[in-house]
Amino acid sequence: MMLxxxxxxxxxxxxxxxxxxxxxxxxxxxxxxxxxxxxxxxxERLHAGCRRLYIPFPGAELLTLEAQNxxxxxxxxxLKLILTRGSGGRGYRQPEVIQTTRVLSxxxxxxxxxxxxxxxxxxxxxxxxxxxxxALAGIKHLNRLEQIMARAEWADSDIQEGIMMDMDEHxxxxxxxxxxxxxxxxxxxxxxxxAGVAGIMRxxxxxxxxxxxxxxxxxxxxxxxxxxADEVFVCNSVIGIWPIKQIAxxxxxxxxxxxQLQTWLTQFQNEAxxxxx
Length: 277
Known about the structure:
Elements: E1 2-4, E2 7-8, H1 17-21, E3 24-32, E4 35-36, H2 39-53, H3 60-71, E5 76-84, E6 101-108, H4 114-118, E7 121-125, H5 145-151, E8 161-165, E9 171-174, E10 178-183, E11 186-190, H6 200-211, E12 216-219, H7 223-227, E13 231-236, E14 240-247, E15 250-251, H8 256-274
Parallel strand pairs: 7-8, 7-14, 11-12
Antiparallel strand pairs: 1-2, 1-6, 3-4, 3-5, 5-6, 8-9, 10-11, 10-13, 13-14, 14-15
Helix pairs in contact: 2-3
């Protein structure tokens, strides 16, 4: 199912700048029992991204209404919400009058095995690096060629995620996830001032850690520091938290802190769902 500017159709204009240049933003949202989970947070991030890219924001009320109408009959699914700068002529110059395109589409929920959540996944380091760009760092814009190239590096079904570094060989994130590690009872994740996506789940985990008196830090670290961690996990809005049990030849336990965070997240999601969030 798909809505384009509020209409049930499956095409956009060829001149749309999202298609032509990747000139836009997107959100990927878990849907449970007809409710897009943490929808308000996703729309807030879209609004912030629109401000960064100078794209007119269509309004939280309209996006919320369209998302809820599209998802209301879905038991479990994934909602993708895209905003672009709309149609324009050839060339990079944006049109004088911008009419934002909004696309909402509903997709089947991925068939991930329970073992990923319970026993952990295997990851690898990617050769493709993330470029450094503070103007775009943090936002979930439509330009994802770096992640596409990184994900194309492996076809082995025994590997579930790839870990990406920036051009200075600092660990940033997974191809589709944010990454955390635990060392000496402290939670660490990468600084995203120069590269990477500031995920909704990443923000929730940082906030939960603070509420439960688990020290959490953003900092710059190398793959050697990551491989010396006590526990490692990845997260996003669809999968929640997946422990990492192995990176290359280094193994990790599914540790106490990771299990605690999974429990806190489940409680937090249940409270959000009961409140209609």
